[in-house]
Design goal:
InterPro entries: DUF4336, RibonucZ/Hydroxyglut_hydro
Radius of gyration: 17 Å
Number of helices: 7
Pfam families: DUF4336 (PF14234)
CATH class: Alpha Beta
């Protein structure tokens, strides 16, 4: 995916299988025949879960591919995508069908986007979208590399980009939401833009968000 300024972003979708066999598609990426077939081989797609108002470009394609899937709306996306049929809102509370398997927290107070952060209890995996990012050292070239470095996207481990730190106009609200996330017994951390953290996830998250402490 390429965003304004010519910045090319590798992005990730996650497929979560619930205990009953139904699938949750988190942050759907571009659909292809191969990806469609691979997803079908895993089970029935029951939920489409865009995690914020930025990760929605391919949502309509997936809804057309799975018209019976329940589509959940993060804050701000209903207004942005009136062409999508949304069935429920993350801001309304936990998804009862996922109880005991997936928990979510709405991280508000940021003028760029309001992100829904997830925790998958069976695998102890925290799932972030844009609040944590990391790119390989040679991913960007020229002036884009300088911008990415300044934005803290080329750190030794995934970091909260500088633009998102500055965009938290209500840090108290962010602290309250992230306090719940930091309390999760995370072993792994998955993100849309960056290599997953595969061990000591809770300790990593406390480092990543230490700048937000009062």
């Amino acid at each position: 995916m390429t965003v304004p300024g010519g910045f090319r972003y590798p992005t990730r979708m996650a497929v979560i299988r619930l205990r009953g066999g139904d699938l949750v598609l988190w942050s759907p990426v571009a659909i292809s025949d191969e990806l469609h077939a691979a997803v079908d081989a895993l089970g029935r797609v029951r939920y489409l879960a865009p995690p914020n108002s930025l990760h929605h470009v391919f949502l309509g394609d997936w809804q057309r591919a799975y018209p019976d899937a329940v589509v959940l709306a993060p804050p701000g996306l209903r207004r942005k995508r009136p062409d999508i049929r949304f069935d429920s809102d993350f801001a309304d509370g936990q998804v009862q069908a996922w109880a005991g398997e997936i928990e979510h927290v709405v991280v508000g107070g940021n003028w760029i986007t309001t992100e829904v952060v997830f925790f998958h209890w069976p695998s102890r995996t925290a799932i972030f979208t844009d609040l944590l990012q990391q790119f390989p050292p040679g991913w960007f070239g020229g002036w884009r590399r300088l911008v990415a470095r300044f934005d803290l996207m080329l750190c030794d481990e995934p970091s909260v980009p500088r633009k998102f730190r500055l965009a938290f106009r209500d840090r108290a609200a962010a602290r309250r939401a992230l306090a719940r996330s930091l309390a999760w017994p995370a072993e792994r951390v998955l993100m849309a833009h960056g290599e997953p953290v595969t061990s000591d996830g809770q300790a990593y998250l406390r480092r990543a968000f230490s700048w937000l402490r009062p």
